[in-house]
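Sequence design from tokenized structure. All designs in this work follow the same two-part layout: the structure record, then the generated sequence. An example of the structure record is given first.
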């Protein structure tokens, strides 16, 4: 399966609420079963939110909690989104007219917390992608030792750019096979350099550092 198609399937299952919340070893196994069972499903929809029954009325009314400001208006989100735009733009395959971009970053939980947390990072990704004209899907998971965030452009690709996307997919496939064949051979792996996710993660972190440097007051 092509990477973009596989990524779209994972995101669709996540948005439908089908994937387990905790992706430990057992959770990963359950996730794989769910992904396989839902291959070819005509349409995955978001799981509807069922309202909880109202609590019994009491003599003393509790005050409403203060409304939290929208993440999209948080200065950290604005700064991070601005810094991420060139990174997302660079993820688009060459010659594809700005279509087919996707970014996957694997962060240490401490790094994610310093940037404002998983949901703020996703909000910044969405803002940056929409400003580039993408139709956006995002995924985010917080694990014990890893925070995974993904943003993807899911627009339909015009016919004139499909060859460029196919060429990019073939290049990625060749690289993947080379890395799989080189497992256990440190010399060959070293010559191949960082893998795609590692490259994208480093690009994300460089943009995040630039955002913090540009507006340090926002992160204090």
């Amino acid at each position: 399966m092509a990477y973009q198609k596989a990524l779209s399937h994972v995101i669709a299952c996540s948005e439908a609420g089908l994937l387990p919340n905790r992706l430990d070893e057992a959770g990963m196994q359950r996730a794989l079963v769910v992904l396989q069972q839902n291959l070819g499903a005509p349409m995955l929809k978001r799981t509807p939110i069922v309202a909880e029954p109202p609590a019994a009325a009491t003599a003393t009314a509790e005050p409403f909690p203060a409304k939290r400001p929208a993440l999209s208006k948080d200065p950290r989100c604005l700064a991070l989104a601005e810094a991420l735009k060139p990174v997302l733009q660079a993820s688009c395959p060459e010659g594809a007219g700005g279509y087919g971009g996707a970014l996957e970053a694997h962060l240490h939980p401490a790094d994610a917390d310093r940037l404002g947390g998983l949901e703020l990072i996703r909000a910044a990704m969405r803002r940056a992608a929409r400003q580039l004209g993408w139709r956006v899907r995002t995924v985010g998971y917080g694990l014990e030792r890893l925070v995974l965030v993904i943003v993807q452009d899911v627009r339909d690709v015009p016919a004139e750019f499909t060859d460029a996307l196919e060429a990019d997919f073939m290049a990625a496939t060749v690289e993947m096979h080379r890395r799989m064949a080189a497992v256990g051979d440190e010399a060959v792996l070293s010559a191949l350099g960082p893998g795609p996710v590692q490259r994208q993660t480093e690009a994300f972190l460089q943009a995040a550092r630039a955002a913090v440097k540009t507006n340090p007051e926002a992160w204090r």
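Confidence is low (pLDDT under 50) at residues 46-62. We note this feature because it recurs in several other targets discussed in the main text.
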